[in-house]
Design brief:
Blueprint lengths: L2 H7 L23 E18 L2 E6 L5 H17 L3 E7 L2 E5 L11 E4 L3 E5 L7 E7 L1 H6 L3 H16 L3 E15 L8 H4 E3 L13 E2 L3 E5 L2 E7 L6 E7 H7 L7 H7 L8 E9 H6 L5 H4 L3 H9 L14 E3 L16 H7 L15 H29 L10 H18 L4 H9 L7
Antiparallel strand pairs: 1-2, 1-7, 1-8, 3-4, 4-5, 5-6, 6-7, 8-14, 9-10, 9-15, 11-12, 12-13, 13-14
Length: 435
Amino acid sequence: MNNKQSCITTLLPPENNGPREATNEPASFPKPFLVGFGVDTLYLNVLYSNPDNALQKQKRTLDADLMSDLMDLQALAKEQESEIASPWSFGGLPLMMQTHGAGKGQWSWLLTSHLIDLSVSRGKLNGIIAQVRVSSRFLWHEASTGDAVSKVHALLMDIFGQDIYVQVSSVDLCADITGWHPGVIDWQERFLSRATGDNAYPGDGFIDGPDKPIRRWKQLTGLIFGSYSGRLACKIYDKTLEIKQKSPEKQWFYPLWEQYGWDGKADVWRVEFHFTREFLRDLHIDNAYEMLDRFSEMWTYAVGRIGGGEDGLPDGWLRLVVPNEDDYTRSRWPVDASWEVIQSAFIEQEELYRDLGDVVYHEEKEVNVRRMLAQITGCMTSMAAQGADLYPELGMSLPDVLVWLCTAIDIRCHLKETSFRRLVDEKRTKYPTLQ
């Protein structure tokens, strides 16, 4: 195989494009085990701090000079009717000023990149001058959440100055497990949670089953416990199916799972807890750095401790139990062995070691290039089919269409007072560069 053939074959869909298709046949599962756990989503609030005490928040409005700079940038973006590069960059990518703000009016300015989104406020309501959404791809790309937080903090100091306080707004912790499928058990009876709801069993406060099951073609694909607007919520879902159906760019999870024994075919289910500011406040977690050594405590609160609490009874906000017909006290029902595997996440170490590096960005880029190749093929064949009558020189063969396109695109760029290379260079700055 020559070099050209080798390059082209990398653009073709891989033979093993993820896990097997779901079927209605009863499945036999090996002993369940974890193939990954960590922080998947993180929101950080930014406030000013006391210049004499970095750990003391100070309620102040946004610096006037910075506010003026942001207003000028946004005005220019609106004038050009397009996002524009700001003076700030993160991970080698410029933060792009959008023409609009975010949320319901609190965030006047929005700066985005493929790694983070930064919403900026005037700080008049509660002293919060900005909020950062740290992307999943960046969190898993970094060796640890601490590294990710430190890099984000450095960017924030570059924008807002040295005297800032970084507060956790919300965080999602997750564990990925294979050899386990909630759909083959009586999930309505066997999942017990302390989520607030109307179907609590009288006397013990436990909720029967999830607040909302998620099905696709009559098959269970997910379970939701609690409300995402409350203190704590959980979503249990088929991660492999989600990647295949909705997020193929996240196939970079495959190499991570394979490091920990995934066979490349079995379904992987994710147990994901959403911890809000209200919950974190109760645990006295405020500063982002205070959170970093508390993952084990947070996870244990959510799923319970292996072997139960100090009284020897099962504990945890949510758990999968084995019903005991001889015991009507559900709080004493033993925890299922598969749930103990989930309980073991974050226990021996705060986070699973991950040596993904550029694998995250490489896999994402590869999937996107495949997508665009399919789109381009569809557009070019449709153009040839419809345009051949209008433009005889267009032709209907691939070489003819490519020659016509080169001329047409060059003319279009000239009319727009730009060039194909300039457009490529502008877009290239928005994507992570592989090392």
